[in-house]
Amino acid sequence: MQWSYSNAVKNLPIGIALLIEYTAIVIVPLVSLWLFKAKVLPRLWLAIVMVLGGLVVVSRIWDGGLNPVGVMFAVMASLFLSFYFLMGEHLLKKRDTLSTLFYAMTISGVFWLIVTPWWNFQPSILVEQISLTGNLEQVQLPLWATLAWIGLFGSFLPMLFSFLALAHLSATSVGVISTGETVMAFFFAWAWLNEMIDGIQALGGILVIAGIVLAQTSRVKEKDKEPANGNS
């Protein structure tokens, strides 16, 4: 998920990459419907139309302006995020948050040790100074500091807090709340990296987020599906 997301933001504006990634929140109720036979409300289909329509507007597909490689990675991130939410919801019914996070990150670490040629890495580059670019171009930090920031605040803590949330809330609720990331991403991309979107794209983004929230509220809770006991 992190690998595909990183490649998406490398090739797309951050806000647009996140909007595509968060179509995962529409995929979650669809998978729940088709795979787990969960009950959903009819407004799910309206939500899907809103999300797809909003993405068409945000991407300005008629201009052909989006990098197709970036779109491919953003779609991959969406699929991986869907799996993350669904598996997290089911796993945390049976085990605690910290052990789930430990096994998840350990497996990820072992996977990347196998597929990445880490033996070619030159440790000396960790002390090189790199610019934060954009409006922070004059600020330079050693590479190890930026990697530590991404590892702690961009991977470990987000996963920890999302698992903690999934232990108390459904994937539906966590998904709705997490869409706030897209709004914050647009703001920080504008304030820091000078990434701009026009008024029509902003309306498309609002339509996407509204569709995502509507899709998530279409899932029916398990207790709502059980017949009531007792006499009328």
Please describe the structure with a list of short key phrases separated by commas or semicolons:
2 strands; globular; 232 residues; two-stranded antiparallel ribbon; mainly alpha
Briefly say what this structure is:
By secondary structure, the chain is mainly α. The protein contains eleven helices and two strands.
The fraction of residues in strands falls at: under 5%
Strand order of the largest sheet: 1-2
Average residue pLDDT: 81
Instruction: Give the termini separation.
Output: 49 Å
Number of helices: 11
- Poorly predicted spans: 223-232
Structural class determined from secondary elements: mainly alpha
Rounded to an integer in angstroms, the radius of gyration calculated over CA atoms is: 20 Å
- Describe the biggest sheet? 2 strands, antiparallel
| Element-level helix/strand string | HHHHHHEEHHHHH
**Portion in helices:** 55-70%
Q: What form results from the Cα inertia axes?
A: globular
Number of domains: 1
Counting DSSP E segments of at least 2 residues, the number of strands comes to 2
How would you characterize the overall build of this protein?
The protein has 232 residues and is mainly alpha-helical. The longest helix is centred in the C-terminal third of the chain and has 26 residues, at 143-168. Helix 2 (14-21) packs across helix 5 (68-91). Strand 1 (129-131) and strand 2 form a beta hairpin. It is built from 11 helices and 2 strands. It has a two-stranded antiparallel sheet with strand order 1-2. The protein has one domain. The relative contact order is 0.19.
